[in-house]
Design goal:
Helix content is 45%, strand content 16%. By secondary structure, it is α/β, with parallel strands linked by helices. It has one domain: Alpha-Beta Barrel (TIM Barrel). The chain has an 8-stranded parallel beta barrel, surrounded by 6 helices. It is globular and about 45 Å long. Bound molecules: 1,3-dihydroxyacetonephosphate. The site of 1,3-dihydroxyacetonephosphate (13P) has 14 residues, from strand 8.
């Protein structure tokens, strides 16, 4: 069975109430003009403060799913500033982004903590979007593939084949994030092919053929068509270009 493409918008730390409403309304209008049978799975990942509003705006719009940008894997309790899976599920959140390079680098998140989150997310019936990617230094010193293999192997530790098949991976080379300099589509395709080989080795070729692997890093309406034409790339995880409804809708169209 062909893998259904995903276009996911990671808002990061952007959008107040008014901006969030304008963006969600604009996306809903844009996709109302599209052929639903050809649409990719559309995901938006607002900040926690905009989740309630986004949930409310899309509650009758099955073509958009919600993701959270983070979660704490503990069920409840004294974790000041954190949000639990129960709280996210209450807002109909279906996906959780984990292992983003911004969280790994700025908040010192370890592979072990990311694995803990992945297991908790799957146990709750939600889907992790597991991010991986190399720094420019790692790329230039030729360790990209081994670095990513290690990140993915550790993130998927003790996760069943069935849960792995449901999960989503996002390959986001750090040097391409927010720089305007997207990874060459063929090179992104090659690297994602390597990730698929890692999944095949950990589980089986069948699971590797099922898991969806996205590319992220300066994806724009002008790059998406070539990216989506690559056989290994199942969609995009998009930051900057997901913050305006017209460009986000263009990205959705680019994946149709
Ligand atoms: P940009 O699309 O802004 O480069 O961000 C990519 C990203 O980090 C998505 O998670």
């Amino acid at each position: 069975m062909a893998r259904r493409p995903i276009i996911a918008g990671n808002w990061k730390m952007n959008n107040n109430k008014a901006q969030a409403k304008e963006l969600v309304d604009g996306i809903m209008y844009g996709i109302s003009q599209l052929d639903a049978s050809k649409m990719p799975e559309v995901i938006i990942a607002p900040t926690y403060t905009a989740l309630w509003q986004a949930y409310d705006l899309i509650k009758n719009e099955p073509k958009i799913a919600l993701a959270a940008q983070n979660v704490n894997p503990n069920p409840s309790g004294a974790y000041t500033g954190e949000v639990s899976l129960d709280m996210l599920a209450d807002f109909n959140v279906k996906f959780v982004i984990i292992g983003h390079s911004e969280r790994r680098q700025m908040f010192n998140e370890s592979d072990e903590f990311i694995n803990e989150k992945a297991k908790a997310i799957l146990a709750k019936g939600l889907i992790p979007i597991i991010c991986c990617g190399e720094t420019l230094e790692q790329r230039e010193s030729g360790v990209t593939d081994t670095h990513i293999a290690s990140q993915i192997t550790k993130a998927l530790k003790d996760i069943s084949a069935e849960d792995a098949a449901k999960s989503v991976i996002a390959y986001e080379p750090i040097w391409a994030i927010g720089t305007g300099k997207s990874c060459d589509a063929k090179e992104a395709n090659r690297t994602i092919g390597e990730i698929r080989k890692v999944v095949a080795k950990l589980y089986s070729q069948d699971i590797a053929d099922k898991i969806r692997i996205l590319y992220g890093g300066s994806v724009k309406p002008s790059t998406i068509v070539e990216q989506m034409a690559q056989p290994e790339i199942d969609g995009g995880l998009i930051g900057g270009a997901s913050l305006k409804a017209d460009s986000f809708v263009e990205l959705i169209k680019g994946a149709m």
